[in-house]
Amino acid sequence: MTYSSVVSRDSIRLAFIIVGLNDLDVMSCNLQNAYLNTKCKEKIWFVEGKECGEDQEKMLVVVIALYRLRSAGASWRAALTELLFSLGYKSTKADPDIWICPA
Asked: Which residues contact 74 (CB under 8 A, 6 or more apart)?
């Protein structure tokens, strides 16, 4: 899987309307270096270059998702989904990228 969905602007607007009408709290965050905390699902290896000194020409395997990989976004979303489920959050039926935590 190489696709990672993005929450729609309309879903955010509707969520804020529901929050305002029901006097609910909203939590948000900005995740820095998100892909660097996700395992790589692709099998990628490469040979080190001259800039690695005496270690040059050693074979290396990529174990974390990197931004330019086709599956990086999907890998990150899968890891985030797993974490949110474990914390008791549920994805809404209308937009799978809006998460709620039942009281």
From this structure: 1, 2, 3, 4, 41
pLDDT digits (tens, 9 = 90+) for 42-69: 777 788 888 878 878 888 887 776 777 7
Kindly state the tokens that stand for 34.
């998100």
d(CA 29, CA 63) in angstroms, rounded, equals 26
Q: Which residue reads 């879903």 in tokens?
A: 11
Q: Distance (Å, rounded) from C-alpha 31 to C-alpha 84?
A: 14
DSSP 22: T
Residue 20's contacts (CB-CB under 8 Å, 6 or more residues apart) are none
The model's pLDDT over 19-33, given as tens digits with 9 standing for 90+, comes to 999 999 888 877 777
